[in-house]
Amino acid sequence: MPDWTHEARHVGPVAGVDEAGRGPLAGPVVAAAVILDRDCVPDGLNDSKQLSAKRRADLHARLLECATVGVGIASVEEIDRLNILWATMLAMERAVDALGMACGMVLVDGNRCPNWGHPSIAVVGGDAISLSIAAASIVAKQTRDAMMVEADARHPGYGWASNKGYGAKVHLEALRTLGPTPLHRRSFAPVAQACLTL
């Protein structure tokens, strides 16, 4: 389970950063930055992928009550223009900026940090070992999932309420029969192929 080991090595506020939505064919990429209050840490923080939807929603609500949270979004247009890696880095920058305060250290899930002015360390598998990054993973996923449920109502037929824009069978079939929407990432191969066949 995640713990305070990485946070304890640093002085001042420590933010955890993680993203959701690098792999889907549609929708934005969302990053979150979270500074936990050590006197008010919700029980059960873990990598968002290890949590049930209900548990994740409960923890997200608790984090909004007792942690400092910033969210950053990179749009589909930015993903197609910059590529998904750099759009993810941009979303992370925006998430940390949204905290509205200076950090003593930023712990970033993965193997690289954005090119920014913040002191930061990349932590491979950080969402499973750092409480702050685990918290960020929950906020990022919960935020993006809600956006895709809303998008499903505007663009029915692709199954986004359940598949969240990933390349599930129902989504790929709809891409072939209905074609791409404005929320599809045209730089991603299955979407680009669907555009060619229209």
Short characterization:
The protein has 198 residues and is an alpha/beta fold.
Give your account of this protein's structure:
With 198 residues, this protein is α/β, with parallel strands linked by helices. It has a domain at 7-143: Nucleotidyltransferase, domain 5 (2-Layer Sandwich). The protein has 7 helices and 5 strands. The protein has helices spanning 53-66, 76-82, 84-99, 131-154, 160-163, 169-178, 189-197, and strands at residues 14-20, 29-36, 67-74, 105-109, 120-123. A 5-stranded mixed beta sheet has the order 3-2-1-4-5. Strand 1 and strand 2 (29-36) form a beta hairpin. It is globular, with a radius of gyration of 17 Å. It starts with 13 loop residues before the first strand and ends with a helix. The model has no long low-confidence stretch (mean pLDDT 97).
Sequence of strands across the biggest β-sheet: 3-2-1-4-5
CATH class category name of the domain at 7-143: Alpha Beta
Helix coverage percent of residues?
40-55%
In what range is the share of β-strand residues?
Answer: 15-25%
Give a short account of the largest sheet. 5 strands, mixed
Q: Considering the protein shown, what is the CATH homologous superfamily of the domain at 7-143?
A: Ribonuclease H-like superfamily/Ribonuclease H
Radius of gyration, CA atoms, in whole angstroms: 17 Å
**How much is the average pLDDT?**
97
